[in-house]
Design brief:
By secondary structure, the chain is of the alpha/beta class. The chain folds into 2 domains: 124 residues, D-Maltodextrin-Binding Protein, domain 2, CATH 3.40.190.10; 108 residues, D-Maltodextrin-Binding Protein, domain 2. Strands 2-1-3-12-4-13 form a 6-stranded mixed sheet, sandwiched between helices. It has a 5-stranded mixed sheet with strand order 9-6-10-5-11. The protein is elongated.
């Protein structure tokens, strides 16, 4: 009996040792898979205005998917919520604004959002409403402009460039309608939320409309506007639309990959073909 007990004990020990060896092998194999296998898929959510921003982002969904990055595009129709959602961590990035607007938002809200790359520029245009010719503008004509500070200044600079008003010297991109120094035609500047400007056209003589909202309304600065910002204007140099992220996320590989995909020949060709001058790539 004693001899039999010893034999059983030896068998148990052998089986235990074999099990430990197998576990060690599995552990080593698992580590090798983590180091040498495919990386886990990463998802990024980017907030965007529907046109053209979301459309441009959707052009690179498949390119990023090939790199193991799932791009989700969340559309917004205003200029506040995309930054609020980004600041609160609901988004990884957004694509709808230019740097002057972002700087103003950060100063007002205390947020720390930064630009990671410029992508395109949308020329502002003056579009006809009740009146059809800037040359024949009537005394007291109503012209609608965006009511947020940076875009209102941009609209006023465009009106000045076309001889409709004259602004005080040096006001530049800080201009408001209170900075109009000369107004020979007694133009009534009507401040309206940017997204509502196309809808205001039946009620005003003219409206100065942001490029994306013009496109959403079926308008194209190259074809429908009576006057458009020059590509060498202060506005063109300043108001490129950017990919914005939270400060500190600049080196995230998936966000760097997003920028690389957007600043590609493929996207440049897409913009030039589809927007025909209403959206201009800046890379």
């Amino acid at each position: 009996m004693k001899k039999k007990t010893i034999i059983v004990a030896l068998i148990v020990l052998a089986l235990a040792f074999a099990g430990l060896s197998a576990c060690g092998k599995d552990k080593d194999d698992s580590a090798g898979a983590d180091e040498g296998g495919a990386k886990e898929n990463v998802t990024i959510t980017v907030g965007a205005s529907p046109t053209p921003h979301a459309e441009i982002l959707n052009e690179v969904v498949s390119d990023l998917a090939e790199q193991g990055i799932t791009l989700k595009v969340q559309e917004f129709t205003d200029y506040v919520l995309p930054n609020t959602a980004l600041d609160e961590g609901e988004l990884d990035a957004n694509y709808f604004q230019h740097t002057p607007y972002l700087d103003e938002f950060n100063a007002e809200k205390g947020t720390k959002i930064v630009s990671i790359a410029p992508i395109h520029y949308e020329p502002f245009g003056v579009y006809p409403g009740k009146s059809k010719s800037l040359a024949d503008i009537q005394d007291g004509a109503k012209i609608a402009v965006p009511n947020d500070a940076t875009n209102e200044a941009r609209a006023l600079l465009l009106l000045e460039a076309n001889g409709l008003i004259k602004l005080k010297d040096g006001v530049g991109l800080a201009a408001t309608k209170n900075d109009i120094a000369e107004n020979a035609k007694n133009i009534d500047i009507v401040e309206i939320e940017a997204a509502q400007l196309p809808k205001s056209l039946p009620d005003v003589d003219f409206a100065v409309i942001n490029g994306n909202y013009a496109l959403e309304a079926g308008l194209n600065a190259a074809d429908d506007a009576l006057a458009v910002e020059a590509q060498d204007s202060l506005a063109a140099e300043t108001f490129a639309n950017i990919i914005a992220i939270r400060e500190g996320d600049e080196n995230r590989p998936e966000l760097q990959a997003l920028v690389k995909a957007l600043q590609s020949d493929k996207v440049k060709a897409f913009i030039e073909k589809n927007y025909k001058g209403a959206v201009v790539p800046v890379f």
